[in-house]
Design a protein that fits this description.
Belongs to the GLE1 family. With 644 residues, this protein is an all-alpha fold. It has 17 helices and 6 strands. α9 crosses α12. It is elongated.
């Protein structure tokens, strides 16, 4: 019989792999080719799950052979086979499962190529020549094996197509999710943009509200200024009336005192006359008994005089013991320094006594006035605008006619000195404010120095030496040199040394402060005099060492700039004498202050400007800028860099 060509209803190659195996292969070659095909598909597949064999490829013997449940369709192209094909298709359509058809386009049944078209179709029981039973069984076995292999290939190709479709669906699903996420992000960004615009609108509304409040505040300030001017005129009228009343009272008091003095003089003259008459009578009576009583009278007089002398000596010793300044040996200070201290303290005392009467006026709220001054001092920071602004406000308050100037200046002096004791206070900034205020109100400088002397004796400079004969106890000595007492207990030495250091820092900052166009009433000249008096008169101990160290760290830079080599000589004296005496004491508690002074001299710290000495420029130049008249009163130049 002729050769029948079979065609698969799918491409012959997929990925370079032939899907229609050669039916003439041997069985072993076909098995090895299938294994290679599975290995290649598993390694090159994009599907996550690799191909696995569901059942073994072991074939049974010929006795257990069975037909495949998935037949294939054979098509014969000759006219004679049309009837046979139709009958076979009707039978196989009943058992046809979703399997692709094999098309047999040509069926060549001719025995030779030389025939002239004669068809000699004979119905033969086989497509090949008759063979034996064994050979026919082998042929059927081989044919069934080929069919089964082809079915397996078709099934695997279908599985691949299904997996590719699933992957495509997953890819489309992922793209849809990404698009949804992008839309969600766009919506979120639109919402954020809306919120941001709302915040901008709110900020703009707040800004406009703040501007409106500022205008209202300015109008209120103008109204208060008008009321203040009216109050000033009223206060001026009252002060004038008070002065007239005071003059009238003083005149009446002077007349009364003159009258009292005249009466006392008259009374004294009468008493002197009576005393003279009495003495004359007693003298005449004693003359008669002069001889008899001469010896006993002299003895009694001598014994009385001795007793009175002894009593006077005892009382004098008691006074010396109770008075801390009984002997010059316990007070170590220069005479000129002590004289200046007494003058300043006397002026401060007289001013306080005069203020006591003024404080009795119930119409003045002095407590609120003091709080305002204290508040301005606490607000001082190390910026130029703040320093000028606070100084301007303080000058206006101190010169305000609403309150007595003497009280205002005394409060300012006390508050600004006590502020230097608080931790974190800007010593150099406070010094700038003091210089600016005292340049307008010179009285304030004497009161500030008096407050310094009362708070710390080393600002004189002065030191009091302990003596058992001069002080009743150690506590009395500590009180004399400035220790504080709280509930009957004297503060410890460390707290006292911290206060000394704070006061000396502020004092040192004051003497070295220089402002362009403004005179410092207690400048570098006074600082140089203080250092000379200190080294000439004060002993080297723990208290004086702390005071000297704090003074050098704040005023040393300014003193060196002005006195150069003379200041270096002072430092040599401190290094060669003062520090040697401190080291000779072998007191471990003084090691820290000794190291500070020694490091300051050896490392030449006086060449470096102390931190805070140069005021910082404000970030907002419009805050607290002095008015034109205030700048002119301070000698302010047009250049902003008016500080040294």
């Amino acid at each position: 019989m002729g050769i029948v060509n079979l065609e698969l209803p799918c491409p012959r190659n997929i990925g370079g792999i032939g899907v229609d195996p050669d039916p003439d292969w041997s069985f072993d070659a076909l098995v090895s080719e299938l294994n290679a095909l599975e290995a290649k598909l598993s390694s090159s597949s994009k599907i996550p799950v690799p191909f696995t064999k569901e059942k073994s490829r072991n074939f049974s013997n010929g006795k257990t052979l069975g037909r495949s449940s998935s037949p294939f369709v054979m098509r014969i192209s000759e006219d004679e086979m049309d009837g046979i094909e139709s009958e076979e298709e009707e039978v196989q359509d009943k058992n046809y499962v979703a399997v692709n058809r094999f098309n047999f386009d040509e069926l060549d049944l001719s025995e030779s190529d030389d025939s002239d078209g004669e068809l000699s179709l004979e119905v033969q029981p086989y497509l090949m020549e008759e063979v034996g039973l064994v050979e026919g069984a082998l042929f059927e076995l081989t044919l069934e094996h080929e069919l089964r292999v082809k079915d397996e290939i078709r099934n695997k190709i279908s599985a691949l197509e299904t997996d590719l479709l699933n992957e495509n669906q997953k890819y489309n699903s992922a793209l849809n999710r990404i698009e949804k996420y992008r839309e969600a992000r766009r919506e979120s960004e639109r919402k954020l943009d809306t919120q941001y615009q709302r915040k901008i609108a709110e900020a703009l509304d707040n800004h406009l509200t703040a501007i409106q409040r500022d205008h209202e505040r300015k109008s209120q300030i103008e109204e208060r200024k008008i009321r203040s001017d009216a109050a000033y005129e009223e206060a001026k009228r009252r002060e004038k009336a008070l002065q007239e009343e005071k003059l009238r009272q003083e005149k009446a008091k002077a007349e009364a005192e003159a009258k009292l003095r005249a009466e006392e003089a008259k009374r004294a003259a009468l008493e002197a006359q009576k005393r003279a008459e009495k003495e004359a009578a007693e003298a005449s009576n004693r003359a008669a008994d002069a001889v008899a009583q001469e010896t006993s009278s002299e003895t009694r007089t001598i014994s009385n005089l001795g007793t009175e002398d002894a009593k006077s000596n005892i009382s004098g010793y008691e006074k010396t013991k109770k008075s801390p300044s009984a002997g010059n040996s316990i007070v170590k200070a220069a005479e000129s320094a002590l004289k200046l201290e007494q003058e300043r303290l006397k002026k401060c005392k007289e001013l306080d006594e005069g203020n006591q009467t003024l404080r009795l006026n119930p119409n003045k709220d002095l407590s609120r006035h003091e709080r305002n001054i204290s508040k301005l001092i606490r607000q001082i920071t190390g910026t130029r605008d703040v320093v000028w602004g606070k100084a301007t406000e303080l000058v206006k308050i101190l010169n305000s006619p609403e309150f007595p100037k003497s009280i205002s200046v005394a409060v300012f002096a006390k508050k600004v000195v006590s502020h230097g004791e608080s931790p974190g206070s800007a010593a150099f900034a406070c010094a700038y404010v003091i210089v600016l205020v005292t340049s307008q109100i010179p009285l304030a400088m004497d009161l500030i120095l008096a407050e310094f002397h009362k708070a710390c004796i080393y600002t004189v400079p002065k030191h009091i030496v302990y003596s058992q004969s001069a002080f009743e106890s150690k506590d009395a000595y500590y009180k004399t040199i400035g220790f504080r007492e709280d509930e009957g207990k004297i503060e410890n030495i460390d707290d006292y040394l911290k206060r000394i250091e704070a006061y000396m820092k502020l004092y040192g900052a004051l003497v070295q402060t220089e402002v362009g166009g403004v005179q410092n009433l207690h400048g570098l000249k006074e600082g140089w005099a203080w250092l000379a008096r200190f080294l000439n008169t004060l002993p080297a101990n723990k208290f004086t060492a702390v005071a000297l160290s704090a003074f050098l760290r704040t005023a040393g830079f300014g003193l060196f700039r002005k006195y150069k080599s003379q200041f270096m000589k002072m430092l040599n004296i401190i290094s060669d004498h003062f520090l040697n005496v401190l080291k000779a004491r072998e007191d471990s508690t003084m090691n820290k202050v000794i190291a500070e002074i020694q490091f300051y001299i050896e490392d030449k710290q006086f060449l470096k400007e102390p931190e805070g000495r140069s005021l910082e420029a404000s970030l907002l130049s419009s805050i607290m800028v002095p008015k034109i008249e205030d700048r002119q009163s301070y000698g302010y130049q047009q250049s902003r860099d008016y500080y040294y």
